[in-house]
Amino acid sequence: MIKVVPRLATIAGGIALLASPLISKPSFAQAHSQMHHEQSADTDHAQMHHEQPAKKKLNAKRPVRNLHPASHENMEDHGAGHSGHEMKGFLGPYGMAREGSGTSWQPDNSPHEGIHAQYGEWMTMWHALFNGVYDNQGGPRGDTKAFISGMVMAMAERQVDASSFGFRAMLSPDPFMGASGYPLLLATGETADGRTPLVDRQHPHDLFMELAATYSYQFAKTSSVYLYAGLPGDPALGPSAFMHRISGLDNPEAPITHHWLDSTHISYGVLTAGVVLDTVKLEASTFRGREPDQRRYDIEAPKLDSYTARASWNPTRELSMQVSWGHLTSPEQLLPLVNENRLTASLSYTTPFNRGDLWATTLAWGRKYNLPGNTLDGYLAESELIFKNGVTLFARGERLQNDELLELGEVATGLAMTPQPVFTVSKVTAGGIYDFIRAQNMRFGVGALASRYGISDALKPEYGAPTSYMFFARLKIQ
User: Fold this and answer.
1) SS3 string of 420-439?
2) CATH of 4-477, one of 1.10.10.10, 2.40.160.10, 3.40.50.1820, 3.30.70.20
3) pLDDT tens-digit profile of 328-352?
């Protein structure tokens, strides 16, 4: 433990150094859920998107003027009455707060934070999140590590009459933590070296998490059709990825159900087409089923060999639901002859309360049909309370069936392995963060979490009765 203190101090110092220029410097940051980008108090929202104003310098950078408060602290007031002032979504005639990772939806009440500017006809937004983490996973199969995780995301959008053009880029510092990722008991999936499965570890995400373009055409007041293309991108399968869900984005630990619900969020080659009919969205994707390989800095060759379909419904501003099905061709590099069918369903609920606080919850289920192999279920419930005083509390419970926990050693590439024994395991995590620096466009705080596990009797000789914990420093630029 003593050895990691200097490493933690270095991580925290680096994050604080990144934050220092933002503490005293004013900015035009605004919560994404209130991306009101009127150019003046007299400019009508429809004119912004459908009429050409007077000639402008296309390279002029201008802060976006906001007619409403710039944080989730006033979301309760914002909720129903101001949706007409929100920045239009990339994929349809609704507020952009509805859009999650890829083409997924989340509740309209969701805060999607970002720093906004306008360059000629293009509206831009960017935000960043970095976690400096000390991870201690207990028990005989546990390990310790200090690392940095997070993401930087940028978007650009242009409206031309009824059409909308968009570009997205998202990068992650995860590759710098090393090919084997970080210790995470009961997590499985992917490989560090192209030979050995990662077991009891969370793989690092690729440097390029998303490079995507979108086009949508609004054919009615509340309806549109759209196209999404990414290399990499996120196909229409599962709920929003865990680092984008409001109910889980402040928890630096990946869910162990990641490969049951949202592991396709980085796919090298994605084409999605869909239609929005007010509160309903129907979409289908073709994409590369193979998960990213162990080389985390490159862009892999696209291959459209898999397919999926998803239906989403936002019946109220507080609720978002989806059901999706997909066929993944050879998802695991080490088991190329094994395909997978995946079925998922999820419900997300986000609501402001107490004039400034926010509560978000997600319930999700995923089923993997390995072909050939076992059929495995995974369940997730996670919730988060964000208070205006800088305190955030979160919790997550998971239960799943896993047949990879004892799959150790090298795998014979090219062979489909004999179905392995299935173990039912569970995990409960609780934690929180206190942001002691809260400026207009950044937050810096410290947090901790702890986890306990439900281990089947057959696995107890391997795992014992472990307790795990993390300490972390978190920087948000928003």
Assistant:
1) CCCEEEEEEEEEEEEEEEEE
2) 2.40.160.10
3) 999 999 999 999 999 999 999 999 9
